[in-house]
Amino acid sequence: MAVQLRSSGIALRASILCGVISAASAFGQTDRAKLFEREDAYIRSEVTSHFFRGSVLVGIDGKIVFEKAYGIGDEEWGANNTVHTKFRIGSLSKQLTAACILLLQQRGRLNVYDPISRYLSGLPAAWQAISVHQLLTHTSGIPNYTSSTEFGRIKRTGATPQQMIELVADKPVDFTPGTKWSYSNTGYILLGMIIERISGLSYNEFLKKNILDPLGMTNSGYDRVTDIIKERASGYQEKDGRLENADFIDMSVPYAAGDIYSTVEDMYRWNEALAEDGKLLSAESRKQMFTEYTEAVHEGQHYGYGVVISRLKFGRLLYYHGGGVEGFSSSIQRYPEDRVCIVVLSNFDSYKPWELGDHIASDLFNQPLSAIR
Prior knowledge:
The chain is α+β, with helices and mostly antiparallel strands and about 375 residues long.
């Protein structure tokens, strides 16, 4: 990937310049208004044809240029979604967990290349030498606890992080750590446990004190079913062509791998914080987060720390992640060289919000969807 970038030379610089001109400051307000009128019509058609419900935000050059909510947030009360509706974001939470780890490293409390056994005791022998870095990049080989036959039970009863990792602690690693990539929620459960062990705070407390409050993400938090959360959406699923309430999940189960709720505006604040050295993370931490690690490759895309790094969409550098949890689906897409960010949060779990993001990006960049490889 990096070689391809360097060899592009003048053509690459011209491509980036054209993208910035078309998507950002020189993109006329009248043209932009017409473009988002088309996007609004398309999204409304998705509400009708594919049950989409949720909120959509587009930011360009650090400013929100489109923000709108669609569909019902609570069917039983007939309450519409708004741009302030709070959605469970699922695995988008992994970006925030990764940032917590990097903040601890910045403060000299850990090193991402340390073995996890330095911070956690009682681990299986096969896990002892696995590094924090390998958890962050899904290259640890630790089996995914959500694949356990017991997962259906703990979804309803809840579980501690220790109980969750015990679901796979007696299983062999899927491969020699550091040699392959395989998505593992278990790795991010372990990262949450490391954050708690080092900081002396709960994951929830550390997240709030070090990320949510400093960035003004006042409409985001650690989700618990027992909490009364104003404007929290209800989650839905499709069965036999009709809409129904999503299956129950005790939100202790996703934990540091997917337990956060948020709004499109708060996720945009998060995006902007990651785009600037020193606003949350140092230049070195940001470099580590967005490095294309050679061992963390899947289908031509790299996995950094809680982020997928791709050049397969419209030939542009893209940082993104998707998320899904019972009743909810989400995505955040950032084209850093074009200064474009697209956030889609939905309270319907079968919807693919990244595809809606791709549709918006194709119009912004004046590129056909067929340009996605």
